[in-house]
Design goal:
α1 packs parallel to α3. It contains 10 helices and 4 strands, in the order βαβαααααααββαα. It has one domain: 3-Layer(aba) Sandwich (Glutaredoxin), CATH 3.40.30. Strands 2-1-3-4 form a 4-stranded mixed β-sheet, with helices on both faces. α1 links the parallel β1 and β2. The protein is an alpha+beta fold.
């Protein structure tokens, strides 16, 4: 029997994606679903403007968000240090796609998250991502050729498709066409997996 599939969009530089990761793998292990992991690389500068333009209200929100995510990290025994600067995570996202095709997805995924949030990895340096690929037994030159070849077009197509489905942040999960945003919606997602017919009741007239 084919397992129900949940599509998961994530970004390695998102604190909330990091702290939701364990619960997502538990979802797969305990509820008989298959996770399809895809990158949704957040474009921070595009969404939020330059650092100079951001208001005190914005910075209060940012400080709270990291404090809140750190609470979740501490509860799981995870190290989470605030990012030292704004990162472009394209290389790490391309690494996710490459790792899936070479049988090293989960160790790659966990290594990138762990090292980035403990200040042991710069996501936007190609040699560092290629180094992880090689460390896990795949070909760094082949990965670099992928990055310099079809990776950008594939990545941009995935992001555009995500946005066509309503995705705007991470972690985002899609099950049977329904979008769930944030780790705190995993419980609701589990309810839907157990009883897919509740979707119409939950969404009311929009689902009819």
């Amino acid at each position: 029997m084919t397992k129900p599939r949940v599509r998961v969009y994530t970004d390695y530089k998102s604190p909330y994606a990091f702290v939701a990761d364990r619960a997502l793998f538990e979802l797969e292990e305990q509820h008989g679903v298959e996770l399809e992991w895809l990158p949704y690389t957040l474009r921070i500068a595009e969404y939020l403007g330059s650092v100079e333009e951001r208001s005190p209200h914005y910075w209060r929100k940012v400080r709270y968000a990291y404090m809140d995510a750190r609470r979740y990290a501490n509860a799981q025994g995870l190290v989470m240090k605030g990012p030292r600067r704004i990162y472009d995570a394209f290389y790490a996202s391309a690494g996710m796609l490459f790792a899936q095709r070479h049988g090293i997805f989960r160790p790659y995924h966990e290594t990138v998250f762990k090292r980035f949030w403990s200040h042991q990895l710069d996501l936007d340096l190609l040699p560092e991502i290629a180094g992880i690929i090689a460390e896990l037994g795949a070909s760094a030159p082949e990965f670099e050729a992928y990055v310099n070849g079809p990776a950008r077009a594939e990545h941009d197509r995935i992001v555009a498709e995500a946005e066509s489905l309503g995705v705007f942040g991470v972690p985002s999960m899609i099950f049977n066409g329904e979008l769930f945003w944030g780790g705190d919606r995993i419980g609701m997602l589990i309810e839907r997996i157990r009883a897919p017919e509740t979707r119409q009741l939950a969404l009311g007239n929009r689902a009819r």
